[in-house]
Design goal:
Blueprint lengths: L12 E2 L30 E2 L1 H4 L4 E2 L3 E3 L4 E2 L4 E5 L2 E5 L17 E2 L8 E6 L1 H10 L15 E6 L9 E3 L6 H10 L1 H5 L1 E18 L13 E4 L8 E16 L7
Antiparallel strand pairs: 1-11, 2-3, 4-9, 5-8, 6-7, 10-12, 11-14, 12-13, 12-14
């Protein structure tokens, strides 16, 4: 997994100095599973009959019929000032901080699993409600959450930013067995305080409304540029991190 739905998606471990700005450690913006928002499928989808390779399609993975939709970007003035918007926005188009998100069709289980592509809305739901990125079920509300990331030569660090939602223990063991990236090496940590930091998305010019870059940029919720950002991933920072060995954890 590691934020990449059994393959490589947006970089799940975000290095220092790459974001546009940092913020403090205020309200986490992370809600318990079952809080506000749309109902979430709670069971991982069997993939063996479809792919012949993997036993599970992660909850956050896209399917071939879940195509991206690209409405025109327009200038919009709201309570926080000017920014980008869509004509005729729906309730799904913005997160609880008012940031605009890219549109993607919801058709989980339809077509073929796209392991290289993370579904934007399900990633956002999983991060916002601390759902397991594999099965879509809740992670513990009364204790630390388990995060499993690709090994880049260091453990999970205090304040580290990631686009990878948490996992439950059984699904973590599936992840390290089936995800090619995690099979190469992984690190795990129990995280006491995950905070919603910002988004990874396409930043648009405030005058021309044209994208400044085709690559996703990490933008803090405290940065004014977030008003001009079309978000694709929710980023959290990890605090109160305790490294763990997956084999030592009880299911």
């Amino acid at each position: 997994m590691g934020g990449s739905a059994f393959s490589q998606g947006v970089e799940e471990r975000i290095g220092e100095g790459r974001a546009r700005s940092a913020d403090g450690r205020g309200d986490s913006g992370v809600r318990p599973a079952g809080a506000e928002g749309s109902p979430v499928e709670a069971v991982a989808t069997s993939a063996r009959s479809r792919t012949g390779r993997l036993s599970t399609v992660p909850y956050i993975a896209s399917w071939s019929q879940e195509r991206m939709r690209r409405p025109p970007v327009v200038r919009r003035t709201g309570a926080e000032g000017e920014g980008i918007g869509f004509p005729g926005e729906s309730a799904y188009d913005r997160d609880w901080r008012g940031v605009l998100w890219t549109r993607q069709i919801l058709a989980r289980g339809k077509g073929r699993p796209q392991y290289h592509t993370v579904h934007t809305l399900r990633q956002r739901r999983a991060m916002r409600h601390m759902l397991c990125q594999v099965c879509g079920g809740p992670t513990p509300e009364d204790g630390p959450r388990l995060f499993v990331l690709r090994d880049v030569g260091r453990p999970v660090e205090e304040g580290e930013r990631t686009t990878a939602p948490p996992v439950c223990v059984p699904c973590a063991r599936i992840s390290v067995r089936e995800c090619p990236r995690l099979r190469e090496g992984h690190v795990a940590a129990l995280v006491g305080r995950p905070y919603a930091w910002g988004v990874a998305g396409i930043v648009h010019h405030p005058v021309t409304l044209e994208p400044l870059d085709t690559a996703l940029q990490e933008v803090s919720y405290e940065d004014l540029a977030v008003r001009w950002t079309l978000a694709h991933r929710l980023i959290v920072t990890l605090h109160d991190c305790t490294p763990v060995d997956l084999d030592a954890l009880a299911a």
